[in-house]
From TrEMBL:
GO terms for biological process: menaquinone biosynthetic process. Coiled coil: none annotated. It catalyses: dehypoxanthine futalosine + S-adenosyl-L-methionine = cyclic dehypoxanthinylfutalosinate + 5'-deoxyadenosine + L-methionine + H(+). This is Cyclic dehypoxanthine futalosine synthase. [4Fe-4S] cluster binds at residues 64, 68, 71. It comes from the Bacteria. The lineage of its organism: Bacteria, Bacillati, Bacillota, Bacilli, Bacillales. NCBIfam families: CofH family radical SAM protein, menaquin_MqnC. S-adenosyl-L-methionine binds at residues 70, 175. (3R)-3-methyl-D-ornithine binds at residues 139, 287, 309. Its cofactor is [4Fe-4S] cluster. PROSITE patterns: RADICAL_SAM.
Length: 369
């Protein structure tokens, strides 16, 4: 079946249906999809600029009682291999980030049943007392765990966290927003409805979040389309998402190690279809951390306008055996090779500095785990 009519409708601004998305997933005309997605990206972002953020992923704890089959990072509560970082360790990581021009801390961990709400609010207050840094932290699953431990509602927890210093919330843990896949790979994790509820509550309390998607669990094309529909519907209702990020399951070293690993073409196709379908989310991040720098660069021709974070530190994906280290000057080079002008942004997608010509970052930092 030719997908030309679907792509033409999308480029002309017509909203695609789930059946359209399924037809695109069934097609192998990935380059055509990329071309159409790129046209839509340029409607949102007509200037040839690709943004990135200097940030750090701080995994403050690996204790987790959710036990996802696809995670190699977590340790069960009580495990001798588990940890909770001390405040001093977290402060040191933040200081290192600020020293190289960093503006964002993406702090995430497991669903730790032993940490009360006061742990999070006290930590945020201590951070904000010391540093001028944007805290883009705690995914929906963590928020629901805090709510469970504290006895408060998700909205009440988010209000407390915002008051203490939380600035925005990452959209980790969405994976595939259907119960069919979630019950198979992460049956103790928040439901798709709870994930959406947490993201919409983020906007209610005056913050914003991001939307994510992970493919490669053996989900059907129909499930992928339903995931996109649910994200688009939530955005229609609340405008809670500033950006969208998708990547592939990394099954190595996990309980899903026998799962066939998808490749770069699957990733690029998903990026393109997502850009075509999600007509109400302005920013699409490349996922070079999982896909590698070269595929990350290619994604800038498939609908992405942003290269994501420098990710000075990352432990969750790397626990599954996927480790791509890229320093900031490497990001500048890759963006330029894609024919774009690199620009450093903040979490709100405001441009802080544009790198014309051959400018480089004076201070650079590469984490070696």
């Amino acid at each position: 079946m030719s997908i030309d009519a679907i792509l033409e409708r999308a480029v002309n601004g017509e909203r695609l249906s789930m059946n359209d998305a399924i037809a695109l997933y069934e097609s192998d005309e990935v380059e055509k999809m990329g071309e159409a997605a790129n046209k839509i990206m340029k409607k949102w972002h007509p200037e040839p600029i690709t943004t990135f953020i200097i940030g750090r992923n701080v995994n403050y704890t690996n204790f987790c009682d959710t036990y996802c089959r696809f995670c190699a990072f977590y340790r069960a509560p009580g495990s001798k291999e588990g940890y909770v970082l001390s405040n001093e360790e977290i402060f040191k990581k933040i200081e290192e980030t600020i020293a190289v021009g960093g503006t964002e801390i993406l702090m995430q961990g497991g669903t730790n049943p032993d940490l009360p709400l006061s742990y999070y609010t006290d930590l945020l207050r201590e951070i904000k007392k010391r540093y001028n840094i944007w805290m883009h932290s705690f995914s929906p699953a963590e928020i629901w765990k805090i709510a469970e431990v504290s006895g408060l509602s998700v909205e009440e927890v988010l209000r407390e966290l915002k008051e203490a210093g939380l600035d925005s919330m990452p959209g980790g843990g969405a994976e595939i927003l259907t119960e069919e896949t979630r019950l198979r790979v992460s049956r103790l994790k928040v439901t798709w409805e709870q994930w959406i509820e947490a993201m919409e509550a983020t906007k209610k309390v005056g913050m914003h979040g991001t939307a994510t998607m992970v493919i490669g669990f053996g989900e059907s094309f129909e499930e992928r389309a339903l995931h996109l529909q649910r994200v688009r519907d939530a955005q229609d209702r609340t405008q809670c998402f500033t950006a969208y990020i998708s990547w592939l399951l990394q099954p190595e070293n996990t309980g899903m190690y026998k799962t066939k690993k998808l490749g770069p073409r699957d990733y690029l196709k998903n990026v393109a279809i997502s850009r075509l379908f999600l007509d109400n989310i302005p920013n699409f991040q490349s996922s070079w951390v999982t896909m590698g720098p070269e595929v990350g660069k290619l994604s800038l021709e498939y609908g992405c306008n942003d290269f994501g974070s420098t990710m000075m530190e990352e432990n969750v994906v790397s626990s599954a055996g996927t480790t791509h280290k890229v320093n900031t000057n490497e990001i500048l080079r890759l963006i330029r090779e894609a024919g774009k002008i690199p620009a450093q942004r903040n979490t709100k997608y405001e441009i802080l500095r544009t790198f014309d010509g051959e400018e480089v970052i004076e201070k650079d930092f590469i984490m070696q785990n």
